[in-house]
Design a protein that fits this description.
elongated, 1 helix, two-stranded antiparallel sheet, alpha+beta
Length: 58
Amino acid sequence: MPEKDVTVVLNEKGQELKKLFKDYNANIEQWKFSVEETKEGVRVEFAAKALFKKKEPA
């Protein structure tokens, strides 16, 4: 059994992904990330749209 709660891990991974986009100077056009605990389990909703611009020639 994992040591961390799955909701904590999912939120951490979502933040890591958002940071990755920002590190590459991507223009985040849409971002939705939610983690919801229900009586049946954990529901995750994720939608992202980002533009990674082409590098300018040297």
